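ESCALATION

Customer reports they have been waiting on this structure for their group meeting. Please prioritize. Original submission:
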Amino acid sequence: MKIAVIGAGLGGLLSAAALSKEHDVTVYEQLDMYGGRFTNLPYKGFQLTTGAFHMIPHGPTGPLALLLKDVGADVEIVRSKPEGTVLMQDGKLVSAMNFVDVLSPATKLKVPLLAMKALGQKTGTAADFLKGFPDMLPLADSFCGWALSATAANTPMEEIAAILKNMQKYGMPGIPMGGCSGVVDALAGVVEDNGGRINLSTRVDAVKVEDGRATGVSVAGQNVPVDAVISNIGHQLTSKLYDRKYLEPKYAEVLTKVKPSAGIKICLAAEEPLVGHPGVLFTPYTRRVNGINEVTHTDPSLAPKGMHLTMSHQTLRSADMQQEIKLGLEDLKKIFPGKKYSVLMVQSYKDDWPVNRISSGYDLGNLTPVKGLFVVGDGAKGKGGIEVEGVALGVRNMLELFEKAYG
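Update from on-call: job pushed to the front of the queue and completed.
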């Protein structure tokens, strides 16, 4: 089959690497680079990122690692040890695996029952679930902010339950050697080795549809006939590429309601370690920063010799971007008192360059009203998939749907 992939982000490259084993695949990317929000951004000798952190939520045993192995992408992923720590109000650190130590005695007694109940929760938000347990809400906000760029109040508890199950199943974070580029470079290599093509600086203007089925794409005014289309640009942007007569009313209505998640990343340079380990530092008692990582303990090549790269993340809580950045910078001063560091870059993610095209827990799956047109990426994640793990789960599901449709 002849397949067009729109967008060379992580979802598009995973799809192309898998499908190019047996099919004729061409990837079209409007930027002059592949990787989207999951690649390295060289700056002053540091390897910053265009979006995602140099961290994979379930490390070498998670959905992304398994799919990379399946498609033949050789990526070394090193498990983070410790997995994470929590910064307390008094400045002390506790293991993220022993977070119950920070809770009140009354809440500690109820944690086992809460955990069992959480795994089966189907309704409400995480904040609703924790009503009556105010000492757990900051921890939930820190986790949701770090992992999903959301708050506990706007994250469905059903999604949290699925995440908890995946944490039990797949394990904890890991770091890809070479950072994000280590992953997408390997995938691009697989696509090309399989005979596929990645066309950069090439925009798809339209998806051609006949009798409700995708039959081609328009590129620079030229119609390219295809048998199927995989879109990595999200449901909303994808829906603008084909004739609106094929846009089902219920689907169109849903598209008007879903929203992207937004966040801010602050990148720091320091000669001495700030976090002190390669896991996640959760910061539940700050005004804005949700979590921080320092992956140069595992991969020193991501910074100049003798330097560390430290990156913080915070979900965007208001429309005043400058105020949000200011509060994040103030948080970092309090988190690292007396430490010497410089701010390399502040990056914001929203609108058409968001953290997720659709907030976690509200993903719309891989299907569209047009037969043969599938969506992958961070607007079509699998249930309970944290960021790139969700992208991998979504691609895996798309491949199953593809196989059912075409054999």
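Sent to customer with the following note: DSSP finds eleven helices and 19 strands in the chain.
Escalation resolved.
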